Amino acid sequence: EPRNVRVELGARSYDILIGGGLVARAGGEIAARLPGVRAAIVTDRNVGGHHAGALAQSLEAAGIASTTIVVEPGERSKGFATLQEVVDGVLAARLERGDVVVALGGGVVGDLAGFVAGIVRRGMRFVQIPTSLLAQVDSSVGGKTGINTAHGKNLVGVFQQPALVLADTGVLDTLPEREFRAGYAEVAKYGLIDRPDFFAWLEENWRDVFAGGAARTHAIAESCRAKAEMVARDEFETGDRALLNLGHTFGHALEAATSYDSARLVHGEGVSIGMALAHRFSARLNLASPDDAVRVERHLRAVGLPVSVDEIPGELPGAERMLDYIAQDKKVSRGALTFILTRGIGQSFVARNVPASEVLSFLKEV
Ligand code: NAD
Ligand code: ZN
């Protein structure tokens, strides 16, 4: 039986089921919650090749007629051109408002398909079947959807909560190792935000999480529970949910500084370096013990994640330019920046008045 984590949002509450074989069971789970629907499956070529056939079969067996729309893999598909293709695909299949868009893929497909579900016919129903570790523990939960523009990432979108999330732990077996590791950075993040026991558990059990089975299911379920709690407390990201950005201020700056070139850095790797830096920076500000920063680095390094900017191939801009990237990512008011800092493992907090000068001198050292 799969684990069930419930996201409590009143009338829009939904289940996240986590376990093996859920793609094969998807038809039954969807039909039980959304009787009588037809479906558009949105997937990318990588994921579709492995798993779309099994999903379509499962839907058909449950009496759900479906059409499959395949996009190119990669962040570039999160843009206006692909949005239009998918919207046209859904309309060409003559789906109605009560029908369902099913996202089968990583965060790119989830964000794109969720946005489509949010805008076609002023809002269709939506089911997430996340297939990357990052999508299972992060992007499929919480209802943020959207696309990128020339002005930056994720600037056009809507909040569109899914009716159901099916995190099939088995599909992760076809995920490239590097992508799995990158997603793991977000798993570790939940421990570092406010779950020190979970972080300690990961230090002991990460090998089993990578191997699959019960430990993997546990790690994903704990991560979903952590995210679900934060989303329930702050659906539209006006307060507490900001803690989810631990490691992301430095991480986003590094992604921008490497031109979002996935050959150099993928998101989770940037987050890994960012979390290591956030802990070192907190120690430097005398908020946390340097031992905690060492412990965080030791764990991330053990799983094979980068923890230092030196590990990024190619040249990086200097400290001043990096500060510009950070200032673009976060609102700067009177020379002060907002950062997620920490008092120790699992004791993160939102720091709203970090002097830009402190950040700059830290960046000159790392
Ligand atoms: P992704 O969707 O590009 O997937 C990574 C790669 O793995 C792709 O090449 C994909 O085809 C492949 N893949 C995925 N699942 C696979 C599987 N089971 N087998 C084989 N290959 C598989 O990237 P991602 O890391 O999953 O997601 C990143 C995106 O998520 C970014 O666009 C980011 O902005 C977004 N995101 C959104 C939220 C949110 O709250 N909505 C949160 C975090 C990240
Ligand atoms: Zn992230």
From TrEMBL:
For activity, the cofactor(s) needed are: Zn(2+); Co(2+); NAD(+)
How would you classify this enzyme at the top EC level? lyase
Which residue ranges does the record assign to the 3-dehydroquinate synthase C-terminal domain? Answer: 183-332
The record's cofactor note says: Binds 1 divalent metal cation per subunit. Can use either Co(2+) or Zn(2+).
Q: Give the EC number(s) listed in the UniProt record.
A: 4.2.3.4
Cited Gene3D superfamilies: 3.40.50.1970, Dehydroquinate synthase-like - alpha domain
Concerning its family, UniProt says: Belongs to the sugar phosphate cyclases superfamily. Dehydroquinate synthase family.
Recorded protein name is 3-dehydroquinate synthase
Classification lineage: Bacteria, Pseudomonadati, Pseudomonadota, Alphaproteobacteria, Hyphomicrobiales
